[in-house]
Amino acid sequence: MARLTAPAPADIDAKTQGALDAIAKQFGFAPSMFTMLAANPTVLEIMMGLQGSIAKLLDAKTRHTIALAVSQSNGCRYCQALHGFISSNLGGMSAGEIELARTGPSSDPKRAAVAKFAQQLIETRGQVSDEDLAVIREVGYIDPEIQAIVAIVVVTLLTSYLNNVSDTVADVPGADHQSAWLSSPSAA
User: Fold this and answer.
1) How far is it, in rounded angstroms, from Cα 63 to Cα 49?
2) 133, exposed or middle or buried, with CB in 10 Å at 0-12, 13-18, 19+?
3) N or C: which end of the chain has fewer CB within 10 A?
């Protein structure tokens, strides 16, 4: 059971309900993270604005790779499930690509480097080394793209923190099939 509660449907104002309806249309369901955030419409609005903004950064598979790596590193079971769903169903990533993104490596050198860099950002609290920057630049990322990576990491950390505090119930379709990595020691 979640530790932070979602508002009752009757307690959700029309604007917030419209936002939840838009999310449900996009995903095919309203993820419990967003219904929980509806308790504070301003926080929901901030999250939706941030999510909309980062959708303009880099390509979708790179954004998904970053989100999967961050969710894994931060031990957010809900985010692991939701980003796995989004990467597979909306992002066109295979199960193998998703698993590689979670653990850091990839068959694509740029995505492997971005996953590792995202994890290093978390581990070092943003104080990456000159060598870390050199590695990400060697695979072709330029400074504006590195800024985009940092922004995506931070937004994903925010969702991870909100879901970890809430202990949001994984209502993501197919999450029960992902139970092996959700319960594995390396998932935390």
Assistant:
1) 16
2) middle
3) N
